[in-house]
């Protein structure tokens, strides 16, 4: 068979689109982000419990008293888990994605229902969108729309579009042909047949489709979190990256609450919108649990709450931003930092956020998966990131994006790649010892993402060097899966060998043994580099020079990481402040400012 | 006010190159030949005229093309060839917009499965056609209520279709068709989905309404009894062609072919045939002189049998002016009911014919002898 270079064609197609259609993507991006910002602003304006009240009144009106009470409890739970802002940002994201998805899918579904040709053309396209792994679509989405909301919405949209189209088509096709004929026999215009007969009767099915669109959209927020949309998806990704079961569960519960609320409210909305559903609902027996206020009452309730909310918003929002910085070098200039939720990444990113804010910059930090992070910096949407493991671990990314990036040098040298076993595994201290114990480990080395540089190194060099390629197999997977496997085997005191690197929190959580590498097969360890977008050094020479000269010792880094770990989620910057307070003078070392003689020393 | 409907050499062919198929059909090609090529000739060369204010029934089994024929009359299907003229207008020449206008004002339709809109109340269903016409709400509701009352549904206006029985639902369907005041009513197996007693009721009601409304009605059915009850004229369709077009009596007494004849076997002749059809027009002139009960030419045979049972001799048939137009001997009645055109065979048995008066069950035999003797 000749090799079909489909991948190359797609590659060049995407490149062409990026080069020539950027005006279109920019327009889409502007619209989507405008919608998102608008909705998010509305959702985050009132105090959490007030908005919970408004949402509860909505559920009460549409479904009944029990639904209202449960909705309030659910949103109060989100608030008490300190996930309110994330939840609202996710809600806004899903709403925007849903609105856009419906704006596309319902007309498309109507067209497909009316024309066989459209239907058979649309169907394979929908199959493609729905089954193509979403991660595959994510990278082009970033290239087209940039990191953040727009790419997240588009990724969600693409996935959620299909049920909207399918259910609309199905709903309309399901309408009894005799009814459509009856409408035509009385001289109804095609448009009126659609509006007066087909759509009202298809409404329950269409609303089921809307419901599916929302549910699929919610299931996509985790994926969307990888491209920096933040919200609950970002929280879940962060928890996965750190194997933080508790935090992951909390964020997951937040998503579930949103899902159940949106599901119940949209299905009730479907009932209320359809004349048949309204009638069926009116005939159902009434109990206290299903008591529903009249629309007027509900509207008044919601408006009162909204007014209260608005009032509080006006008086409550003037808490003021940070006090004026001492050494205002940045003068409010914006700097965008991206990071991977790895310990040293979080620590160094928040460290720089704090330092730069003290120097008068306005800093935003966003969390990404490694791939999107490199894409983001390379396309100039982010200014820099501090967690590039070069030359080995991130070799693939560097190969692809290196030309569009500026390496500002490494700030931490003492990294190493290694194979690691728990310390209870006896007689295995070096890579050379592995061969004899292959059966003990089941001939398995638990690896991480196959794209990671260290995996290539392991398979191509390390195994050969120690003659392990016959007796061991490297299991591809992911970092969280590797860590979970380690945790599981560690708890049961099973022998296991994993790929790991230093620094890593696993070394402080578990008693582990790095296997010695007498032949030096792993090579010299990576440095942790700071990587900036091309041109950042010209735009901001001061910050670039600070970053170039930045370096941390192992003691400083582990100390800071421990401080952050202690402070808990959401308190990273506070932890950095505390740590800097304990280590006075570091800010001036890392970000020196020319001062006049009358300035007193920092203290 | 009603207008006449005329169908002129209508063809409907589904599939590829329908016009070519019509040409071949005109040259005598068979429906089966076309089917082998993947084209379906649903209606082949159908022509008929429906007089204003009459009920025209199209009778045929499923697949005979009767529903297709009906849908060409209001343009839901466009004929492949031929014309439909209604009220002097050629409907096949109208564009979509004009056709919709005609459908909304001049032609109504009643469906087999009622086709009521489940998301509209009974009143809103009945008012649907008027709503399409753009009649203001107050007026269309008044007229819908009138139509509903006409169909015996006063008081049900605010109900919903799924709260009504099948018969009542079809009354709503009928009211919806009548509310627009259309001149032409197309009824597609409208009573087929109802159980027999309700169906009878509905037939009676339709005939009752028709007496005052005088619509032009095309009624589709697969039930010859229904066709004979309702139809002023009946067209029998088979394999897309109209094989016979005539009155109920024509169909029953002079079936065009064996196919039509096979249908008539199940028909209750005594309700369809009348004295005019069974009487012997050769009269001596004194048969009505005795003062016994007489019949009129349109007296159904069922009633005639009763009269015959009450009179000892052949029943005299008098027309509207009291002129004697024929006699019905009992033997003739029996022969018609039994669909036996031949005379009784001669019997050489020694059995004596008993007195008719004492044993009425043997009576017709005696009459039969008399008929034979006279003939």
Automatic annotation (TrEMBL), chain A:
<comment type="similarity">
    <text>Belongs to the binding-protein-dependent transport system permease family.</text>
</comment>
<dbReference type="GO" id="GO:0005275">
    <property type="term" value="F:amine transmembrane transporter activity"/>
</dbReference>
<keyword id="KW-1003">Cell membrane</keyword>
<feature type="transmembrane region" description="Helical">
    <location>
        <begin position="201"/>
        <end position="225"/>
    </location>
</feature>
<feature type="transmembrane region" description="Helical">
    <location>
        <begin position="245"/>
        <end position="262"/>
    </location>
</feature>
<dbReference type="GO" id="GO:0043190">
    <property type="term" value="C:ATP-binding cassette (ABC) transporter complex"/>
</dbReference>
<dbReference type="InterPro" id="IPR000515">
    <property type="entry name" value="MetI-like"/>
</dbReference>
<feature type="domain" description="ABC transmembrane type-1">
    <location>
        <begin position="87"/>
        <end position="266"/>
    </location>
</feature>
<feature type="transmembrane region" description="Helical">
    <location>
        <begin position="91"/>
        <end position="115"/>
    </location>
</feature>
<keyword id="KW-1133">Transmembrane helix</keyword>
<feature type="transmembrane region" description="Helical">
    <location>
        <begin position="135"/>
        <end position="162"/>
    </location>
</feature>
<dbReference type="GO" id="GO:0015226">
    <property type="term" value="F:carnitine transmembrane transporter activity"/>
</dbReference>
<dbReference type="Pfam" id="PF00528">
    <property type="entry name" value="BPD_transp_1"/>
</dbReference>
<keyword id="KW-0812">Transmembrane</keyword>
<dbReference type="InterPro" id="IPR007210">
    <property type="entry name" value="ABC_Gly_betaine_transp_sub-bd"/>
</dbReference>
<dbReference type="Pfam" id="PF04069">
    <property type="entry name" value="OpuAC"/>
</dbReference>
<keyword id="KW-0813">Transport</keyword>
<keyword id="KW-0472">Membrane</keyword>
<dbReference type="InterPro" id="IPR035906">
    <property type="entry name" value="MetI-like_sf"/>
</dbReference>
<protein>
    <submittedName>
        <fullName>Glycine/betaine ABC transporter permease</fullName>
    </submittedName>
</protein>
<feature type="transmembrane region" description="Helical">
    <location>
        <begin position="296"/>
        <end position="316"/>
    </location>
</feature>
<feature type="transmembrane region" description="Helical">
    <location>
        <begin position="39"/>
        <end position="59"/>
    </location>
</feature>
<comment type="similarity">
    <text>In the C-terminal section; belongs to the OsmX family.</text>
</comment>
<dbReference type="GO" id="GO:0031460">
    <property type="term" value="P:glycine betaine transport"/>
</dbReference>
<dbReference type="GO" id="GO:0015871">
    <property type="term" value="P:choline transport"/>
</dbReference>
<feature type="transmembrane region" description="Helical">
    <location>
        <begin position="65"/>
        <end position="84"/>
    </location>
</feature>
